[in-house]
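Fold this sequence, please.
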Amino acid sequence: LNLVLLLSMPGARNRFSEGSKFSSDMDPTNKDDNATVQKSSEEEVEALLNNHSGKDTMVPMGLEIESQGADSPNSALNSEAWKLLFGAGGIYAAFLYYGSLQEDVFKHESAAGDGTTFKQAWFLQVLEALANVVVGYLGWRFVGGNQGLPQKQFAISGASQVCAKAFTSLALANGLSFPVATLAKSGKMAPVMAGSLILGGASYSLREYGQVLAIIGGTALVSMGKSKKGGSSSSTPLGVLFIILSLTMDGITAGVQKKLKKEMSAVNVKPKPYDFMYYTNFYMLIVATVVALLIGDFTAGLAYISVNPDILGLIVKFSMCSAIGQSFVFYTIAHFDPLVCTTVTTTRKIFSVLLSIFLKGHNLSLQGWSGVVIASTGILSELNQKFSASRKNQALTGSK
């Protein structure tokens, strides 16, 4: 086996055959010369085999150029660029389609002809969480995960996250337009700031206040800026209430996740990407299933699908896009700074809003378009501030 491995290596076959040829040309009666050649060949074979087994020896002839090319700066730069393109492209593709499917699901009208639409948000969350649990578990098993993690905080985080997602879906189911809901969800800083100010111990700059006001004000303008030919208003009181509840749960989730990371740091456990995806969605699945059964969403959802089997394809694709998108998020975080992932996911929301406006028939007035610009400016300003803070931290770390 070692001889086969040796002869299969670049340059080894020629060098070995040359040694054999030289040995055969020697005078068979000259024992000293033969012994010298034999020893030299044996040493060369040993060196080549050692290199094949990973020991620190000379690189065999024929591997030198290949090795240098793999480690060159240009090659490394190209590799990073392709990784970023793969990760960012996956996030954009999965979540842009995810948003489009979510809007289609809650705009779906029953084939019964009674004008009813799909409103079973908790049933939808069961299927979405199930898809994420399956993909998360596969990643956790094959990529690697930790044991003995603080399950209590994962359970609280899962419960708050599934409530936030369900409330967003309920906002759409109760008349809030997708562009308004998406822009409003970009203002997650608002409940975080409000909670920190009420509880005390926090202070914010004028720029941070301005960013939040821009997002909220721009969203309000979009909500009120539907063109007359677009029909009904793009928001309802119940829809607005649900999106506010969703933002509140986002604020709770952020606090719980900070506490979770502190607890893991206290026991010297570094969380791996699929730890969060698997455990969080596991508890999301439990909470969503319990709520869906208690309020009748589970049976109502199955009944709606039995009458409208075409919506099942939308729901399956929606759930898979969620799971695939999360996997790309974790891939990007694993290879790049988290801020890179934040940039991709934040800008993705702006494109989701624009695609919805152009492809789903949302007719905005000049006031509505002004709101889109103002809200997007607030979102991008917040992103720019995060970049500036990251550079300052890197500079301080480098100076130390």
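The radius of gyration is 30 Å. DSSP finds 16 helices and no strands in the chain.
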